Amino acid sequence: MFVYADNAATTHIDPDVVKAMMPALGELYGNPSTIYSKGREAREALDKAREQVAKAINCRPQEIYFTSCGTESDNWAIRGITKHYAAKKGKHIISTNIEHHAVLETLKAMEKEGYEVTFLPVNEEGFITAQQVEDAIRPDTVLITVMTANNEIGSIQPIEEIAKVAKEHNVFFHTDAVQAVGHIPVDVQKMGVDLLSLSGHKFHAPKGVGALYVRRGVLPDNLMNGGGQERSRRPGTENMAGILAIGAAIEKATANLERDMAYVASLRDRLIDGIVKAIPHCKVNTPSHDRLPGTVNVSIKYIEGESMLLLLDMNGICATSGSACASGDLDPSHVLLAIGLPHEIAHGSVRFSFCTENTMEEVEYILEVLPKIAQRLREMSPLWENVKNQETL
């Protein structure tokens, strides 16, 4: 059996999405910036996709700007806001210590450019509070950037409460919602955010297309210079195939969201329950509440995560030890360290992430294979030998 259980890294492109993008690879080849008929046809299709994205997150189409990915959207939001408003408001930024690398590395680079960043610590389940944010706000705070849902452990932050604090103190608020859109309800009006990043390949669109929501009246500087595309805010000839795909994908992903969430959560809960019962000395890192429906992160003590992933792969199961963007890093996940795991336990972690294409049969297969792998690796571990000796005393 083959099981793809790494949907937080990327998703399979939905056949309906492939169908939706095909016109842009054929007859709909016009440049949407031109005024003749072929260009107008492309423009109409682009506008429809913008409306689809806007409807899915409850905003005006004019507040959606297409980008190449979530990383670009994050960079544009953070750098654009700070550059435009720093002279008026200041150069202090508030974030968390479990953000995606697209945010963390941007902020670290900006610290070298003279900005000050407060990285708020999360608790043992991966959450911050609105009070923490409020306590960190200074007169020179220009931006708060907090992810909606964590890509490694699935914790969902209190975005609405943080947004209220930001508004009370007249501070701009951006959220990286790349792991949230298409998986949980995302309503920018209810959330109260000023900017929101999303990426198509997390909900069955192809890689290479994303979007940034910018609330009307908010004016981030452009990240790039060039032509007048995206209402002169994001230059570069539009990726029409990707844009048509993200429109179709987000429409389909949100059409029956409550039903889909319940189904995917049933897979998550069965896996967690099965792992805890079958494998002693393991720790579930996914929080027990306010979590993504499809994410399971667990540390299996006294073994190495990389070996576990290789053996899972040999059995046809795709999983990961953390963010796919850092899979080549030998250091343990910064998220797991942030929630208080020691290095040796964080190294033995694995993340499974499900979508509606997964089945309960696949979950049962993981539960058949994983305990055997854990036992095999532990039998080769001197640490496990010490544990067994202590338990027999």
CATH H-level superfamily of the largest domain: Type I PLP-dependent aspartate aminotransferase-like (Major domain)
List the quaternary state of the chains.
Answer: single chain
| CATH domain class name of the largest domain | Alpha Beta
Helix tally? 15
Indicate the overall shape.
globular
Which second-level CATH architecture of the largest domain applies?
A: 3-Layer(aba) Sandwich
- Spatial order of the strands in the main sheet? 2-8-7-6-5-3-4
Q: What is the radius of gyration?
A: 22 Å
Our estimate of the beta-strand percent is: 5-15%
Which structural category do the helix and sheet elements fall into? alpha/beta
Percent of residues in helices: 40-55%
- Taking the alpha carbons of the first and last residues, their distance comes to 41 Å
**CATH topology (fold) name of the largest domain:** Aspartate Aminotransferase, domain 2
Task: Write structural notes for this entry.
This protein has helices at 15-21, 37-57, 70-89, 101-111, 130-136, 159-168, 188-191, 229-232, 240-255, 257-278, 305-314, 334-338, 343-346, 360-379, 382-392, and strands at 3-4, 64-67, 92-96, 116-120, 141-145, 172-176, 195-199, 210-214, 282-284, 295-300, 317-318, 349-353. With 393 residues, the protein is α/β, with parallel strands linked by helices. It contains 15 helices and 12 strands. A 7-stranded mixed β-sheet has the order 2-8-7-6-5-3-4, sandwiched between helices. A 3-stranded antiparallel β-sheet has the order 9-10-12. Strands 1-11 form a two-stranded parallel ribbon. The chain is globular, with a radius of gyration of 22 Å. Strand 3 (92-96), helix 4 and strand 4 (116-120) form a beta-alpha-beta unit.
